[in-house]
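Could you please consider the sequence and fold appended to this message?
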Amino acid sequence: NGVDFDIIHDGEIYYIHTDELGDYMADNMTGCFALAHQMGIKPKKIIKSLQSFQNIRRRLEKRSSDGVTIFDDIAHSPKKAEAVLRSIRNIYQGKITAVFEPNSGNRQEESIPGYDSAFVSADEVVIPRLTNIKRDPDKPAPLDGTSLSEVISKTHKNVTYIDDDTKCVEYLQNQAKKDDVIIFLGSHGFRGMIEELVTKIKK
C-alpha cells in the first residue's frame, strides 16, 4: 500500500515512498518539494521530511481495517470524491461503498453537471441525512437527499438515500462483508455515524 514515485531535480532522481493512499499524494508532495526548494531547503532534507510524513486527519483517514476497511475523507465535491474513489479502486478489490454528503456549494443547481460519472469507481453510493443549509431566496432550492440521489442515479445504478442516521449505520453494517470498503466523503463530521459503524463492525 502507499504511493511510490520519483522527483527529478537538477539531473538528480529522488525516489519517494509514502504509506499515504491516493495518487494525488504524488502531486501534493511534488508541490511541497518545489515550495521547500524555493525557500532554500536542501533537496535531501526535503525528501527525508516527505518520507516521514504522517497523514493528517480526514484525508483518506483509515478508521478501521477489521475485516471491513472504513475510511473518512473530507472530499465534499463530486470532483474530489471521484479522485479519492479512483485511488481506492486502484488498491482494493472488494465492494466499495461511498457515503457522500456534499458541501453547500455542491448542492446548488449549477453543480449538477459535475456529478456525471463522479462515482463510477464506487459499487454503491449512500446518501445520508444532509445537513440543513440556508437557502438563498434568489436561487433555486438546494438539492436535498432525494433530489441528490436522483441526480447521481442518472449515471450510477446503485444509489440509496437513508435520511435517518441510525438506519443508515444499520444498513451499512448489514451490507458489509469481509474485504469491503466503506468510505465517508464530506466536509461535515457525519454526526458520530463513523464511530458507531466502526464499533458495530468490530463486534
Summary: Residues 34 and 40 are 10 Å apart (CA to CA).
